[in-house]
Design a protein that fits this description.
- With 247 residues, the chain is mainly α.
- It has one domain.
- The chain is built from ten helices and two strands; from the N terminus they run αααααβαααβαα.
- A two-stranded antiparallel sheet has the order 1-2.
- Helix 6 packs antiparallel against helix 7.
- The longest helix has 26 residues.
- The radius of gyration is 17 Å and the shape is globular.
- The two termini are 21 Å apart.
Length: 247
Amino acid sequence: MKNLSRRTFLKGSAILGGTALLGFNQILGVSRVLGQDMPDDDLQTIINLASTAELFATTHYLAAINGAADLGLDDAQIAYMKAGFLAEQDHLELLQSLGATPLFTEFYVPETLFSDIDVFTATTEVAETAFTGAYLAATRVFAQSAETTPFAVTAAQIAAVEETHRVLVRQIGKKLANHTSYAQYTLRNVSSAVPILQPFLDGSGDGFVGPVAPPSADDIAAIRADAAMLGYDNPGVPFAALTEMPM
């Protein structure tokens, strides 16, 4: 994207320092939920884990689209899924342009996830709550330096979109959608989300099946072809890519 490059991003990363990139076993060995004494994630950790979450999200929403009949989704709800897919794909492509590499490329899911609407909505709400919390954690880390403040705003932009996905899936599940005054800050670091999402990464959850492969290039192109029809016509621009940074 315009004026947003991996070089610009990595220049900011030198300011933050932080911990070394954690191995998968190290990440899964601890729960860092609101752990005030834990060091901050470094930038490569943040973007790698975020890209893993985004790839999982695209996999999740594509499966929901393909399983719409079994889930009983109506046309408007299918449109929600497709727009959600496009947003997560946009986030993934942004992260990859900055040098992110997903740590997993196949995922596991509860066996009835895409056939039982109650399981689907409850599971999606858990995942989107974790995604919102993770991007708010990234916002906190990036906001500590003026050099990375633009990326703090971009992380907050993404968190806001993840929260809309959580709200919409609550609506599909016939729950009050707008039931909070604030998005939930549940995680101090992006890596704090890993124990929550671990069953989707390694299939360790009770009744989980898989692996489920992520979307192909053809899958992505097919849903992008529906963007105008859906009204997905304002994907916006990451704050960090703006030529003139508004104050």
